[in-house]
Design a protein that fits this description.
globular; mainly alpha; 4 helices
């Protein structure tokens, strides 16, 4: 069985496409184009979202730039906590 990362569209592309020297949004167009055709963006994003906020400083993950991941995390923090299934019975 293959890992999801073996099916990632970024395989074979230079790392600097996904980790540009500058974090300005105009540097991300090539990475966004590659990620837009990827079938495993959810798995990729889940990997980095499960890490601490430090991971939001660098790189393209799951088709999102660092600033987009920061916005996503802020939105997630505003959501009410999920109830367990036992609480709903």
């Amino acid at each position: 069985m293959s890992r999801w990362s073996d099916r990632a569209a970024c395989i074979g592309h230079p790392l600097d496409v996904f980790f540009p020297e500058s974090n300005t949004d105009d540097k991300w167009h090539q990475a966004i184009d590659i990620c837009s055709g990827c079938t495993v963006t959810r798995e990729c994003l889940a990997l980095v979202i499960d890490l601490d906020d430090f991971s939001d400083r660098y790189g393209m993950f799951g088709g999102l730039t660092p600033s987009q991941r920061v916005s996503l995390r802020e939105s997630m923090r505003r959501l009410p906590p999920q109830q367990s299934r036992r609480d709903t019975k």
